[in-house]
Each structure stands twice: as structure tokens, then as C-alpha cells.
Design a protein that fits this description.
The protein has a three-stranded parallel β-sheet with strand order 1-2-3. It is flat. The chain is of the alpha/beta class and 132 residues long. It is built from three helices and three strands; from the N terminus they run H-E-E-H-E-H. The longest helix has 16 residues. Helix 2 packs across helix 3.
């Protein structure tokens, strides 16, 4: 039977080495277990993969559930700075597509240094079509 190592949505702790993550696996790879077998498992249980852009654990934008969870950590994934318009427009297109698919969409901005997160959230909301 193959071993299955499952991480969390961006949280890693050094004391997890050898207990939760294989001892020989570099820390940068702790959350890089994305493959078809994992996607199938998440789909089967309607569990959303956290679509994260964190600098240590960027995730592919693979939708695995009826709901979508996006977590933005800022350009470069380091909790700071505002996203460029091109990035937020791409996110808005994804959000519109997911809503057309009747998915519930959760988008969290965690680029909170210098209050970038609330402003980026308002910017992406403004890019979405208004409900009538």
C-alpha cells in the first residue's frame, strides 16, 4: 500500500518533519503533493483544494469540490503588496466561470501588510458583474 501524506492549507511546522511529512522531503515540497490520485480523493469527498499562491506552497488552480476556496497572499505570495489589475481580472474571470457552474466561491485575501487585503478585495468585487 502506498503512503499518503496530506498537508494543510499552507500551515507547516518544523516539528511535523518525520511525523507528518517524510523526513527526507525538503520543506518546500511539503505541500507539493498535487497529483491525480489526490484530486480524485478530494473530488470523491467534496473537499476543496485550497487554491493558494503562498510563496512556500503554491497550489494549482484545480477545482475539486462543489465549492471553491481561493486564498491570496499577495504578489509573490509573501503577505504584502497589492495585486496587479491583470491578476485580479484573471481571478474575476475564474470566479464568474465558477459561479456559472453553480459553485459557492470563497475568496480570502491575506496580503494584509499595509492594508492591501481589503483594498484588493474591493477591487476584485468591482471587477465582477453586478447581480440584477
Amino acid at each position: 500500500m502506498r503512503k499518503l501524506w496530506i498537508g494543510t492549507s499552507g500551515w507547516t511546522y518544523d516539528r511535523w518533519r518525520g511525523v507528518f511529512y517524510p523526513a527526507e522531503l525538503p520543506k518546500k515540497s511539503w505541500l507539493s503533493w498535487y497529483d491525480d490520485e489526490i484530486y480524485e480523493l478530494l473530488h470523491a469527498h467534496d473537499v476543496a483544494l485550497c487554491l493558494s499562491d503562498h510563496h512556500e506552497a503554491p497550489a494549482p488552480w484545480e477545482v475539486t469540490a462543489r465549492h471553491v476556496y481561493v486564498r491570496g497572499h499577495g504578489p509573490g505570495g509573501r503577505y504584502r503588496d497589492h495585486y496587479p489589475d491583470t491578476t485580479l481580472r484573471a481571478w474575476a474571470r475564474h470566479i464568474c466561470k465558477w459561479k456559472r457552474q453553480r459553485r459557492t466561491v470563497f475568496v480570502f485575501f491575506d496580503n494584509d501588510q499595509k492594508s492591501a487585503a481589503p483594498l484588493d478585495a474591493m477591487r476584485v468585487i468591482a471587477m465582477l458583474p453586478t447581480r440584477r
